[in-house]
Amino acid sequence: MTAVERATTDTVVYVNKAAKDDVIGNTLGFGNKLYNAKNSKQIGRDEGFCYRTNPGKFWECTWTNVLPNGRITVQGVFPDNLSDSRLAITGGTGDYANARGFMILHSRNKAGSAFDFEFHIM
User: CA 80, 30, 64, 23 torsion: positive or negative?
Assistant: First the structure.
């Protein structure tokens, strides 16, 4: 199953608000709409956060994908260079109550404003 996230709400909270430095501990929060694989119809939303763990390189993220028949929670690395990343599926509810596996996070553009979430549920 694939969903498309349109990253429209991403907000960074800086540890040092005045300097807005890229440092460990900054937080990225988001709650974006999810669309079908064709990116034509909204099918849900996501809700999550990332902590800056390696400035200029990586965020460590956890979020929940709210879908019509349940929720899927994922955790893993989000790279600054927007290369593909594999996140662990850590659980779910509803039709995904016993979900395990992984999700491939793939940037659809260089701006990082849309992503494919490719779920591999086992």
Answer: positive
